[in-house]
Amino acid sequence: MSPRRANAPGRVDRSRSIRFSFDGKIYTGHPGDTLASALMTNGVTLFGRSFKYHRPRGVMTAGVDEPNALVTLIRGEIREPNLPTTLVEIYEGLEAVSQNRFPSLSFDVGAVNQLGGKLLGAGFYYKTFMGPVIGPLKGTRFWMFCEHFIRRAAGLGRAGTAKDTARYERMNAFCDVLVVGSGPAGLKAAREAAGDGGRVILLEMDSLLGGSARWSGGRIEGAEAAHWVDETVSGLRELPNVRTLTRTTAWGYYDGNTIAATERVADHKRDAAKGEPRQRHWVVRAKKVVLATGAFERPIVFPGNDRPGVMLASAAARYANDFGVLPGERIAVFANNDSAYANAALLRDAGATIVAIVDVRAAISDEARRLASQCGGDLLTGHAVVATEGGKGLTGFKVQKFDAATNSLSGDARVISADLLAVSGGWSPAIHLASQAGAGKAEWDATLQAFLPPKPAQDWTAVGTAAGDFSGGHGLDIAPAPVFEIKAAGKAFVDLQHDVTADDVRLAHREGFISVEHLKRYTTLGMATDQGKTSNVPGLAIMAEALGKPIPEVGTTRFRAPFSPVSIGAIGAERIGDLRPDRLTPMHDWHVEQGAKMYPAGLWHRPAIYGAPGETVEQAYIRETKATRSAAGIVDVSTLGKIMVQGPDAAEFLDRVYTNLFSTLPVNKARYGLMLREDGIAYDDGTTWRLAEHDFLMTTTTANAGKVMQNLEYFLDVYWPELKVTLTSVTDEWAGASIAGPRAREILAACVTGTAVDTETLPFMGIVRGEVAGVPVMICRLSFSGELAYEVYSGAGHGQQVWDALIEAGQPFGMVPYGLEALGTMRIEKGHVTGAEIDGRTTARDLYLDWMLSKKKPFIGAAMMDREGLVDENRIRLVGLVSLDGRPLNGGAHLVEHNDPAALRDSIGHITAVCFSPSLGKYIGLALVKGGKKRHGTRAYVSDPLRGRFGPVEIVSHHMFDPEGKRMHG
Amino acid sequence: MLITCPYCGPRDVIEFTYQGDANRTRPDPASTDQAAWNVYTYDRVNTLGDHAEYWQHSGGCRSHLKLVRSTLTHAISSTAFVRDHGEKKSASRRKPGAAT
Ligand SMILES: [Zn+2]
Known about the structure:
The complex is a heterodimer of chains A (970) and B (100).
Chain A: E1 18-22, E2 25-29, H1 35-41, E3 48-49, E4 56-57, E5 70-75, E6 78-84, E7 95-98, H2 124-128, H3 142-153, E8 168-180, H4 184-195, E9 200-203, E10 219-220, E11 223-224, H5 225-237, E12 242-245, E13 248-254, E14 258-264, E15 279-291, E16 295-297, E17 310-312, H6 313-322, E18 330-335, H7 339-349, E19 353-359, H8 366-375, E20 378-381, E21 383-390, E22 394-403, E23 408-417, E24 420-424, E25 427-429, H9 432-436, E26 443-445, E27 450-452, E28 460-462, E29 493-495, E30 500-501, H10 502-510, H11 516-523, H12 536-547, H13 551-554, H14 568-572, H15 588-593, E31 596-601, E32 604-610, H16 617-630, E33 632-636, E34 641-646, H17 650-657, E35 669-676, E36 682-692, E37 695-700, H18 705-719, E38 726-729, E39 734-740, H19 744-751, E40 752-753, E41 767-772, E42 775-780, E43 789-795, H20 799-810, E44 815-817, H21 820-830, E45 876-883, E46 894-896, E47 907-917, E48 922-930, E49 939-944, E50 949-956, H22 966-969
Parallel strand pairs in A: 1-7, 8-9, 8-15, 9-12, 15-28, 17-24, 18-19, 18-24, 19-20, 33-44
Antiparallel strand pairs in A: 1-2, 3-4, 5-6, 5-7, 10-11, 13-14, 14-15, 16-25, 21-22, 22-23, 26-27, 29-30, 31-32, 33-39, 34-37, 34-38, 35-36, 36-37, 39-43, 40-41, 41-42, 42-43, 45-48, 45-50, 46-47, 46-49, 47-48, 49-50
Helix pairs in contact in A: 4-5, 6-7, 7-8, 10-12, 16-21, 19-20
Chain B: E1 2-5, E2 9-12, E3 17-21, H1 34-42, E4 50-56, E5 64-70, E6 76-81, H2 87-93
Antiparallel strand pairs in B: 1-2, 3-4, 4-5, 5-6
């Protein structure tokens, strides 16, 4: 078996095996292993190639801060790139591939970039993508050719193109106290909050609770740390008011003490259990939040610090004690603080040999010295690592004498052979969430050489190492020497994921970048998927030195959500695909069975045409229109917005809402009404029926039904609370059918019982009640088509029954069903306006609806509609159009006075609606043109260069068919 | 953002529709004072801090509420029905758990 096994297995269950593959090769790991620990156990040191220079990279951390060891996971057709191997838990059959290498990980063509390193410095992308501005290649396609390869060579993993088939869930949760992080500080906070009886939620990113206390030794509250964790966790688990979520990363802190978190429910399994989502997006609203998010160890920047085998000291100790794998057998330590000594001791206890401890400080504490002698190996204080050696793994490194006060090297370099260099450059509290919900900037702590949480802007407290309190660890003073970088020859990396070196930072400074925000953008420092968790403070320190300013004056950037990458799928959760509901009328199925071509009208689906086989759309609507105008047609009008306006003040309310009077409307009569907006622009129109003294049924356009309802409620609640009026949306309660045409009355007479439908009983705009097929109906004689027409309303549940009876009654008279196209054709012929003309810019006068503007009472928009700009005669106003070249017109096309297709200027208006008019035998349209009526009888030209249409039209009155309205009054 | 509807209790902001600035005064309907109508229709103060505004519980009871919301923090310091439903009536309509 592997020589890398540590003495104790930690969390790994060595009794069971899991087979997985990495770059096509099969390996064996165990339950509890991450991909990083399993590959390490198998002796793998090379995990990927770096972003810019394609340098070999290994594992640097043991957690979410990992910049290097990223892979793409493949599940069938699905590939998910840029996953840190340190977070991926292995499962049977897991398939991972390394990234950023071509053709293979160990032989990489792009590694030649290392030789041309000078070309790929800071701002490389900004500089090169400009292309040569002088010289022989200027403006040639050569540069575009090169760019193709540069772009391909750069970048991290490749995203897949297959549709993500995984299921995601969203959960809302509420609690009194939310604790983020389950290390000792988090567990204590959860225990305390639970004791107070409140609802507690505890989130932990790892699969196990307890944080480093599970493996790092030491004592808590008098007990062995690991034992204390077990006791405390099982105590919490017994409490009904505590909910613990593992594998759950809190990544965003939002208004109202709302935390967003992602739970990886099934990522660690080959197959999700039945009903189990892959991930769950949690939105937790907490009264109080406790941030026990811990701290990240920092690296030290020195030449060759990116070689596989250079690892954070705490990560090395964790692999040895938590995952049971020695990341190296001959381990050296390089540190600027005491914490590394405790980790060295842990590595030694797990079975590794400590060959040397290199410390930049000349003097160290007695406790550190004691631990060093326990570990054995050389203790080199006042020394620094200046280079590393090896290829795909570390073989050794060079040290020189170092003076921390002056940051200077001296003496000869000495080579020490080791297969792992465990580095500690101090600790940075994980203040990401605190910063997101902070009132100001993070505060610099000179002792810790780190940023502490800012003052809270929401109800949270930070505890434990997240708050800079490191007293609970090994009892060591972790305050580091302020040494962030060892300056020697060779590339020293600050941001390993984006391949940003210390020299890049200095180059950016020389090129004039002073602000830390600009520096980040220019060098891309901290902007990779790890968001600079290991590089932030070292980068800032190097920038501060270049600027000659102390670190807090250079400032840090405010952390933004997400703390770590989040899959879009999790945020979308179930809300994928078309989320809009489909609204179907009671007669929907009938339309579909009759071969209707359905057309979306807002959320509704309405028949556009009932096409006969082989018929074009135009042929169909011409046929339907002709049949309606010569005999009869029936159309489904159930989609119209319907609002019951009821109460003793209903008539007064309508008088205020509509431009015309409704208080004078007799019971059992309907009236066409127009509403304006407050600013005097036309808003919506429709008929309102007075069903009883205090009961009105208002109809609105299909599209505006919701908005009108909301607007009416607003006025009633906010401005007119004294009115005794109740509004109820009844759109879905009624099914509506409109029968139009010269035979309409005969058809109704044939099927309506309980009432007469003659002109006396049912005059124009009259309302009667009767029955059709035994179903109570309400019939109103009103017309949109310009024909003699009736709207028949019944309860929605009986809509189809009534419709069937009407169809049957219409059969002998040649009645046809017609759709939106024929409906539109007939209203264009009549010059009736719809949303195409009531477009949010036109006034009542623009549409020649001035006759509807009552002078007897104020109404919404009454004052503003008379503003100078709105009463100008030369505004674009409603007219009819007739095509003079026998060709169709296009909606949206402009109209011009000049007969010059090439002159794209001087529009006098635009076309709003077009059709072929069967009644006139011509292509016609409605338009809004300057001056409106004044242009009747004149010629203009339709100019539509995008669709290649230019031709003459005649401007006519919009009342193009039966202007006297004889037909509908007949 | 949570809005506590006096009738329905605390609900997510997605259930509500913003219905505009509550600091403006609608002129008398019969007024023809163009300047007053102009101020009402168009003039808004871009407040930094507490701002009175109307929200409709459009995905709930459909009441209009008058909130005072901080434009800096989204913290809501006051919530009330715009329309007075009467002390007795609203108390009897209130659902259990709704904030007072
Ligand atoms: Zn409500």
